[in-house]
Amino acid sequence: MSNTQKPKAVVEVTAADVQGPGVVFCPNPKMALWSTHPRVFIDVAHSGEGMCPYCGTVYKVKEGEHIGHGH
Predict the structure, then answer these.
(1) What is residue 62's DSSP assignment?
(2) What is the pLDDT of residues 9-61, one digit of tens each?
(3) Fewer C-beta neighbours within 10 Å, C or N terminus of the chain?
(4) What is d(CA 44, CA 21) in angstroms, rounded to the nearest whole number?
(5) How far is residue 13's CA from residue 64's CA, in Å, rounded to a whole number?
(6) What is the 8-class DSSP label of residue 8?
């Protein structure tokens, strides 16, 4: 993501939000039903954040949270 692009939304995630091998899914349960798209899994364990290719929502690990390998 370049500095000129702004994400649609930024969602802070905690270790409890992370599934399987360090991923979260989008759309997340808090998103409105009308705005859904196919479910995608976004890796946040390696870089601390990831962006949904459909809606542009950025998922970012909350500061101070530790995402262990194989969580």
Answers:
(1) P
(2) 899 999 999 988 899 999 988 888 877 899 999 999 999 999 999 999 999 99
(3) N
(4) 9
(5) 11
(6) S
